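Input/output pair, single chain:
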Amino acid sequence: MKAVFLDAETLRDLDLSGLEQAFSSLTIFDKTTQKDIAPRIQNADVVIVNKVKLDATLLKASQIKLICIVATGTNNVDLEAAKQCGIAVFNCQAYGVPSVVQHAFSLILALHTNLIQYQQSVEAGDWQKSDQFCLLNYPITELAGKTLGVVGYGSLGQGVAQIAKAFGMQVLIASRDESDCRENRLPLAQLLPQVDVLTLHCPLTPATQNLIDEQALNLMKPSAFLVNVARGGIVDEQALANALKSGVIAGAATDVLIEEPPKNGNPLLDSSVPNLIVTPHSAWGSKEARQRIVEQTIENVNVFLSDEQGERRVV
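Output:
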């Protein structure tokens, strides 16, 4: 089978030999523009993609038998068109749990210790000018006894909750929606006023679009922190910027934005927004997590060749 990898740039530093051995030929491109997709997939039986978009027109004009998405999200592939064309589609799942959980909690810790502000103070020479041995210009808050609120209690939410409990935190879990009556789940409106940290791990859907908006932020404690390692659209970015500027909440950290990369500006990139940490969608990117993507993709190819359904088959 002939395969083409259209956008391998984020995996280039990894061992791809096993992936190369899975095919009679594999052509790897770091990046592929929209105009280059058609000629590059023209003779391919298998297409491997991360974020490159494969629409109905491209799929119907191809001879593709298998699409392997090296990510969990499938919104860049027209799944209905793939189904109509008899193209199998596999994704990768749960590969980044340890990496994302670690990143989420590093943000929680950084907010509570004012880590970035202290580092900046040292760089500015404030400690060197101090008349005592230490510098305590910014508040440091312990996690023990605080309450963590989790929105999205899958493997990621559970992983963060487990670490929170190890720090002596209590954990509250948000119910999925109004019909979610499971024990130990709280409606978001009841959960928000109780938490010291709110961490987001739910998918972006019509139901979660702008889930954390001005109204939700106003329900939180002035001392509370918000951490988003899920998707940018779950949080109303302008509302969050306003809330931080006006002291509605104490601080926030996000690894995701609505537009990525944010080439057209973003209210959360305004340097006047206080107590905000922004990381560049890097929570998933540990070397171990990215290598698991490669291994899962090889497994997906083997499952397809064995004519089995496979747990990661989405079409």
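The radius of gyration is 22 Å. The longest helix spans residues 287-305.
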